Amino acid sequence: MAPAAKARMNQTAAKARKSPPAAKARKSPPAAKARIDQTAAKPRTDRPAAGKRKRAAKPRSAALLTPVHVIDRLAAEAPLTPRRPHGDPIVELVLTLLSQNTSDHNSGRAFQRLIDTFPTWDAAIAAPLQAVEDAIRIGGLAKTKAPRLQALLRSLRDRLGDNWDPAPLSAMSIPEAKDWLTSLPGIGPKTAACVLLFSLGRPALPVDTHVHRVSQRLGLIGPKVNPVAAHDALEAQMPPPHYYDYHVAVIRHGRRVCKAQRPRCDACVLADGCPSAFTFADLATPSPTQKRAPR
Hints:
Elements (H helix, E strand, L loop, with lengths): L2 H14 L50 H11 L11 H10 L5 H14 L3 H6 L2 H8 L5 H19 L6 H5 L2 H9 L6 H11 L9 H9 L9 H9 L7 H14 L39
């Protein structure tokens, strides 16, 4: 595993582990915080009275802010995490697979236990399925993820060789690299974009649930555009150097402010340019003197 990749995972696993492993463990790679923004929003204390929640009206579809304007406002609100590509696409593939349907905290712990248990990827392939399940159980859905993980690693070894050399992937064009990655078992456009952006530093815009939701509310993509189609639709709206900043800024905003349930429009720096702002029935338009919630 590349030294930069080891640097990436050390930070992810450090918060995940409560105590160091008893046996000599493989050091975890340090810099996962370049991708995983762990600044969680404070819980709201000003929730409206309970009742059936419904939207007052469908948001207008026309975007009022461009992606670059969105980046500028969100970056002015709080600095964005600098991009630090770690150079190990295999680590990124495994991390992204383990992160499905769980928190960053739990996926980091699952990854750490995986590499503590199996010192090499070959060892993880050769291990009994139950042993892999046990190693990643803390991340959830172990019975589903363990066979997918072994199938993914086998396919990677077949393509990259016994030395696991990712150089051919780095040499491909972006479309070729996306096709190569999405042809791996269990890998879709979001994971492919994560690998290109976070491990190789190449221009790709991962669209997760937060990016998809916020982009739709801003009118940047239509209400019927699914997450798969959203990758190309959003990439076409901004220069490639902005892909990373948009991804990181919008994920953070989706977690802290533009939540799936009860979005905090009163605390949103994009509200005056958002077609969906204050269109939810359980939200009230703030008065001119109302203070914004702490961030």
